[in-house]
Design a protein that fits this description.
The chain has 123 residues and is mainly α. It has 7 helices and no strands. α1 packs antiparallel against α2 and α4 crosses α5. The relative contact order is 0.11. It comes from Massilia rubra.
Length: 123
């Protein structure tokens, strides 16, 4: 019998062995319907370490997509100086910004570009 595919979040490292055990128990409860999807997402967020992108990662992602600091900043809804600070390791991206950068890294800038800075619909 084939096992169900693992959730993507499970590829992230757990904060500790204790969090890994807690998450495993919660995942089992979710699998049998005792824990709903929203609660399981909360366990994911509390048990897994947030993605950790370095200054080199930010620069690599930006260069891979052939974007200037200004253009990346516009797509992400931040300032150019924020991107500069990330790439110089003066600051690190927030967890939400890291998630967005991971999407860009994995799916390309087009994954967030559609609709960025544009309004759709009638006048």
């Amino acid at each position: 019998m084939k096992s169900a595919p693992t959730r993507k979040a499970q590829t992230r490292p757990h904060r500790s062995d204790a969090f890994e055990a807690i998450h495993g128990a919660a995942a089992a409860l979710h699998a049998v319907g005792v824990i709903d999807k929203k609660t399981m997402r909360e366990f994911d967020e509390s048990c897994f370490s947030p993605p950790s992108l370095t200054a080199r990662d930010v620069l690599r992602i930006r260069n891979k997509e052939n974007l200037s600091q200004e253009v990346l900043a516009r797509y992400m809804g931040i300032t150019k100086s924020t991107v500069v600070k990330w790439e110089s390791a003066y600051n690190i991206p927030s967890p939400m910004a890291q998630r967005l950068l991971k999407v860009i890294d994995e799916q390309g800038i087009d994954a967030i570009a559609h609709g960025a800075g544009r309004r759709t619909g009638g006048v």
